[in-house]
């Protein structure tokens, strides 16, 4: 479907796409990848960034099972799929002794927990959670918005 005025769609539904008419343009002042020396260090650095500046963008290897079958709860699925989707990690918690990330997806409010999902951290399965959380901690970035021209 062609959208106007920029021939880019701002939002789409299965049968309809439309361009955004009014939007605010934001500029990034600083950004960096969040890296640690090991999974625990990376996990702690992500938590520190969440506390210091807020949500971080992370890549995941979203599986078909995750996309089509997840509805709620703390998700875990063994997989080694390469990154194919970007999500926003906004927090973390613990449920029944399992630590998880709280994550905003871009697939709309009808998906998951009103557009959100929870997925195990790398602490899952005695520190092997990276194999069970779609690699969410492998490629995370923070950005600082330049508010000087807002």
TrEMBL record:
Entry-linked Pfam families: Peptidase_C1 (PF00112)
SMART domains: Pept_C1
Peptidase C1A papain C-terminal domain residues: 2-144
GO biological process, one term: proteolysis
Molecular function terms, GO-annotated: cysteine-type peptidase activity
InterPro entries: Papain-like_cys_pep_sf, Pept_asp_AS, Peptidase_C1A, Peptidase_C1A_C
Protein origin, superkingdom: Eukaryota
Family: Belongs to the peptidase C1 family.
PANTHER family: CYSTEINE PROTEASE FAMILY C1-RELATED
Stated name of the protein: Peptidase C1A papain C-terminal domain-containing protein
Source organism of this protein record: Mesorhabditis spiculigera
């Amino acid at each position: 479907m062609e959208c106007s005025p920029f021939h880019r769609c701002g939002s789409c539904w299965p049968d309809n796409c439309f361009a955004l008419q009014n939007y605010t343009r934001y500029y990034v002042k600083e950004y960096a990848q969040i890296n640690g020396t090991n999974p625990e260090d990376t996990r702690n650095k992500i938590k520190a960034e969440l506390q210091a500046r807020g949500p971080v963008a992370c890549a995941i290897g979203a599986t078909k099972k995750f996309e089509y079958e997840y509805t709620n709860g703390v998700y875990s699925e063994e997989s080694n799929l390469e990154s194919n989707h970007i999500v926003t990690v906004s927090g973390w918690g613990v449920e029944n002794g399992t630590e998880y990330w709280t994550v905003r997806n871009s697939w709309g409010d009808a998906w998951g927990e009103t557009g959100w999902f929870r997925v195990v951290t790398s602490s899952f399965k005695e520190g092997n959670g990276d194999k069970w959380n779609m690699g969410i901690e492998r490629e995370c970035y923070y950005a600082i918005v330049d508010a000087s021209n807002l």
